[in-house]
Amino acid sequence: MTPSVPAPAPAPAPSYSHGTSTTPLLGDTVGANLDRAIAAYPDREALVDVPSGRRWTYTEFGAAVDEVACGLLAKGITTGDRVGIWAVNCPEWVLT
């Protein structure tokens, strides 16, 4: 007799709270919104860091965001985990 494998738990519903405002939130994720921007404006500038002179197009920005995400996954951060960021105003904060 083969032991049964339990089905994976369903993903939790995304949080949705917009305080006392009557204006609803977009209803999609930051990632989905970024994917649409990359598709619509691949070669336009998405992020400019004036002090260092660094610039990212939407395509480059998306690739850098994916690189940070892969690094977090490699460190054991998984879907549903929350990550706090304490940083000065810098491009790395935006990429995270």
Low-confidence stretches: none
Main sheet characteristics: 2 strands, antiparallel
Q: Report strand %.
A: 5-15%
Number of helices: 3
Overall pLDDT confidence: 87
- The CATH class of one domain, by name, is Alpha Beta
Please count the beta strands (DSSP E, at least 2 residues each).
Answer: 2
CATH architecture of one domain: 3-Layer(aba) Sandwich
- Secondary-structure element order, as H and E? HEEHH
Condensed summary:
The chain is an alpha+beta fold and 96 residues long.
List the helices and strands and how they pair.
Layout: H1 30-40, E1 45-49, E2 54-57, H2 58-74, H3 91-95
Antiparallel strand pairs: 1-2
Annotation keywords:
single chain, 96 residues, alpha+beta, Rossmann fold, two-stranded antiparallel sheet
Structure write-up:
There is one protein chain. By secondary structure, the chain is an alpha+beta fold. The chain has a domain at 30-95: Rossmann fold. The chain has three helices and two strands, in the order αββαα. It has a two-stranded antiparallel sheet with strand order 1-2. Strand 1 and strand 2 form a beta hairpin. The N and C termini lie far apart (47 Å).
